């Protein structure tokens, strides 16, 4: 769908952990080979392992940042080339650990788009071919305790056992991360469906209030006339006068109820567009009076935009997050730059933690200090995730940062053609009520 964000394929932390396990296994395999008398270029093998070790140490310093599918594919490609090089230096395809060449492409099949899977599949074919053609012979010292056939048999057995454990554990880890993202998307869909049901209810209530207005007015008029006539014709029947008074009171109560319910008519589904300031006010309305002042800075000349449930709910979540952590004020500012419409929601709270910024929008545990007490607030991060998902689904781009003078700042940007609506078009027919 246009504007729909792609899920994070694999967390960088998972790739780093995977490589640590691989490095540990490679060192263990080298030590085991030396113990059984294998002869191979030890310095070159250790240099290849050290290269992966240095890369992983560098990545560990920034393991909390998000990565794209392209970057994840490059990391898996490096692991593939590193394993193929080690195999070429230690016997090629005759090495029982040649099975480990399947790890990168297996993970790619689990979590990456098809184009990256095809690229890694082609890379696996090339690496396996080169490992077979350029393999250095693997020999054993004569007179060793373990003969050639026995270490190969033992090595194949270990490779199968380790490979099964390795594939199972990490496939499970990657699948769990994908399931977490799926569950968060399901929560977003539920929130949107709830908003749409409320809008349907608002339309029905507005129509009912309009249609019942005339009958209620007639009932009140007739009951008033009956009360006057009964007071003249049957002044001794106080019970009838009380019944008529009760009828009038019930009519007045129905009028008041329908009037209050009819105020939700602005949520009628027929209202498909509204001025930008009105949409912002509607999104911020549930959070007014919660403490911090909400200031909306949108010029009257700003264009009308699509009044969509997803947009309103997404903006409402961003405003709620700002109000939760603001000290005194939340500012919603709007503007137009050439062919783009932008909104900036900022607060005067403590802002986002530096380590949190790269992961904002992910449905995982987050921590941000509250402004009033400085204590940590922990949650699943679903509020910002849902807002990001809904707004990006409407074609928006979101940016999260800290302001120059402190506080958090969220910028939402649309192409004007994607968000602007024609507020001069006909609304269409009102829904009919069957009598």
TrEMBL record:
Record SMART domains: HATPase_c (SM00387), HisKA (SM00388)
Enzyme Commission no: 2.7.13.3
Catalytic activity annotation: ATP + protein L-histidine = ADP + protein N-phospho-L-histidine
Gene Ontology MF annotations: ATP binding; phosphorelay sensor kinase activity
Coiled coil region boundaries: none
Main location: membrane
CDD domains named in the record: HisKA
Transmembrane domains' residue ranges: 12-36, 42-61, 125-146, 152-171
Membrane topology type: Multi-pass membrane protein
Stretches assigned to the Histidine kinase domain: 207-418
UniProt entry keywords in alphabetical sequence: ATP-binding, Cell membrane, Kinase, Membrane, Nucleotide-binding, Phosphoprotein, Transferase, Transmembrane, Transmembrane helix
UniProt subcellular location: Cell membrane
GO cellular component terms, A-Z: plasma membrane
Pfam families, alphabetized: HATPase_c, HisKA
Keyword Ribosomal protein: no
Protein's recorded name: histidine kinase
Organism: Paracoccus halophilus
